[in-house]
Write a structure and sequence with these properties.
By secondary structure, the protein is an alpha/beta fold. The chain has one domain: Rossmann fold. 33% of the residues lie in helices and 18% in strands. Strand 1 and strand 2 form a beta hairpin.
């Protein structure tokens, strides 16, 4: 079993030194960080944060990265004002905390954000990416929301979607080879984690009627795409860059 004292793989990782390139705005009943490219674009990407919330510099860095590639990027507060998880919190309370922040109960917020992007930003083609908690949320909206074009799920927890294979849109699943917590209830052995990812891929092959890809990145651990700085983790640099490049290429292909 996963460490009961710490039932989630998330730790803060490398905290990026990042100054916001965008601004915080009110979008319906929630707040959001919005960043726009210098040249007007009708393409947008919704960035779904991890358990550390919409103000985590690492996640905003990902939004800014998207903007440099021509997308309007928005990172809404999908916790709707509730406190994000803090590294100093007692991990024994994590499961109770998580119950009030269900990654499959974000449809109302997604509708508000989509309306904002369409009406206020002129977006006609919209995709979504997410990390950890947000990766699971991407999996959810790829099964339900008809208004999105494509999605990228970064190390989203598979156990939340045991029957979630009939995707509506092209979806790219990024996993780390040494992520011992996908799904969380499995033994913390690399082989078990990869086996579960393999099972996901097999089910998608049987049931999914749109394009998808499941990719495992060698030697990487949970959070590597947005929680590791390549300049201080040189051995991971090729995979961090590859993960980000793959994410962008997928969005460019389908949006």
């Amino acid at each position: 079993m996963a460490n009961e004292a710490k039932p989630c793989p998330c730790d803060i990782g490398d905290r990026f030194d990042h100054e916001d390139c965008g601004q915080e705005v009110q979008v319906g009943h929630i707040k959001a960080y919005v960043c726009k490219p210098s040249v007007k674009s009708d393409k947008a990407v919704i960035v779904i944060h991890d358990i550390f919330g919409w103000r985590l510099p690492n996640t905003r860095y990902m939004a800014d990265l998207l903007t440099t590639h021509g997308y309007v990027a928005i990172c809404p507060d999908f916790f709707v004002g509730q406190e994000p998880w803090k590294p100093s919190n007692d991990w024994a309370s994590f499961n109770d905390w998580l119950k009030t922040r269900d990654s499959s109960k974000i449809d109302k917020e997604m509708d508000v954000v989509l309306k904002y992007l369409q009406e206020q930003c002129g977006a006609k083609k919209i995709g979504v990416i997410g990390f950890c908690w947000g990766g699971a949320a991407v999996h959810h909206v790829m099964l339900k929301n008809p208004h999105l074009k494509a999605g990228v799920s970064n190390y989203g927890v598979i156990r939340f979607f045991e029957d979630g294979y009939s995707l509506l849109h092209p979806t790219f699943f990024i996993f780390a080879e040494k992520d011992d917590y996908i799904p969380l209830e499995q033994a913390t052995m690399m082989e078990h984690s990869v086996l579960q990812v393999t099972q996901l891929e097999q089910k998608l092959k049987e049931k999914c009627k749109v394009d998808y890809e499941v990719k495992i990145y060698p030697g990487q651990t949970h959070g590597f795409v947005h929680r590791k700085r390549e300049d201080i983790n040189p051995q991971d640099k090729p995979y961090i860059e590859e993960g980000r490049r793959d994410m962008l290429n997928w969005l460019n292909k389908y949006i």
